[in-house]
Write a sequence for this structure.
């Protein structure tokens, strides 16, 4: 009989998973779609393609969306933002996907 449960993760691989290595059969979980309080210029934001991956960073009590080049696009604005902040503080890896004209979809990368 086979099982659909994932194999245990080797503790030696945990640093690699934290850096973006994906486990077989892993699935990302959509959490919320939030508005973006822009910090970048409107021209720069209009040049960001749809579904572009964004890194989310903790900046005090809020989350900041940043391109992979390190350019901050803006802060996330959502009524349940404190839950997302707590997830990041607990070590969960959240990413954003840009949704024009000025929203970010927040995803939990599951290991």
């Amino acid at each position: 009989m086979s099982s659909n449960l994932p194999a245990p993760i080797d503790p030696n691989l945990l640093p690699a998973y934290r850096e973006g290595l994906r486990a077989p059969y892993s699935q990302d979980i959509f959490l919320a779609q939030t508005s973006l309080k822009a910090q970048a210029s409107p021209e720069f934001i209009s040049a960001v393609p749809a579904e572009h991956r964004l890194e989310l960073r903790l900046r005090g009590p809020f989350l900041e969306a940043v391109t992979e080049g390190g350019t901050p696009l803006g802060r996330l604005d959502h009524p349940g933002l404190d839950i997302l902040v707590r997830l990041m503080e607990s070590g969960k890896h959240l990413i954003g996907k840009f949704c024009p004209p000025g929203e970010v979809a927040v995803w939990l990368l599951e290991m």
The mean pLDDT is 82. The beta strands are 29-38, 53-59, 62-66, 72-77, 93-99, 103-109.
